[in-house]
Amino acid sequence: MKKLTKNDQELDPIDRALILALHQNARASIRALSRQVGLSAPGCSERLKRLEEGGVITGFSVELDATALGFSLQALVRVKPFTGKFQAVEQMLADMAECVVCYKITGEDSFVCHLYIESVSHLDHTLQKITRLADTNTSIIKTVDKKLPNL
């Protein structure tokens, strides 16, 4: 059994099933979730509340389809700010509309950014903004496979 981080409770098979069901459809009703995991609706609701209070579930979100939004390409860009430019790069990435997720990381690079972009020329234009202040290494995303960690 794996421990919950905040209060040392253990995840049991029902908790795992509930997390998996929510991962597949975060909008599922309590009634639908309770049927999937084999609990009553009040029991399922209580489990969800415990998982939220324990810090395992931190929120429910919306997943966007980049293509449906008009972005035909996605890219991952590793960013290594020039000496003395770290804060300027950090602010620029935070303000950049194309940057949908940005991780501050350790190692040679300081950031890894997930960009939604319309075209290769849009990517070039976006990278030109960044390369004024940093070195970049770019990879085009071919497919996205969203997996749940092995619980």
UniProtKB/TrEMBL annotation:
Q: Which SMART domains match?
A: HTH_ASNC (SM00344)
Q: Which keywords describe this protein according to UniProt? A: DNA-binding, Transcription, Transcription regulation
DNA-binding: present as a keyword of the record?
Answer: yes
List, alphabetically, the InterPro entries matched. ArsR-like_HTH, AsnC-type_HTH_dom, Dimeric_a/b-barrel, Tscrpt_reg_AsnC-like, Tscrpt_reg_AsnC/Lrp_C, Tscrpt_reg_HTH_AsnC-type_CS, WH-like_DNA-bd_sf, WH_DNA-bd_sf
This entry carries the following GO cellular component terms, namely: cytosol
Q: Which residues form the signal peptide?
A: none
Cross-referenced Pfam families: AsnC_trans_reg (PF01037), HTH_24 (PF13412)
Which GO molecular function entries does the Swiss-Prot or TrEMBL record give? Answer: sequence-specific DNA binding
Would you tell me the protein name for this molecule?
AsnC family transcriptional regulator
Q: Which organism is it from?
A: Pseudomonas fildesensis
Asked if the record carries the keyword 4Fe-4S, the reply is no
GO-annotated biological processes: regulation of DNA-templated transcription; response to amino acid
Q: Which residues form the HTH asnC-type domain?
A: 11-72
Q: Which Gene3D superfamilies match?
A: 3.30.70.920, Winged helix-like DNA-binding domain superfamily/Winged helix DNA-binding domain (1.10.10.10)
Q: Which PROSITE patterns match?
A: HTH_ASNC_1 (PS00519), HTH_ASNC_2 (PS50956)
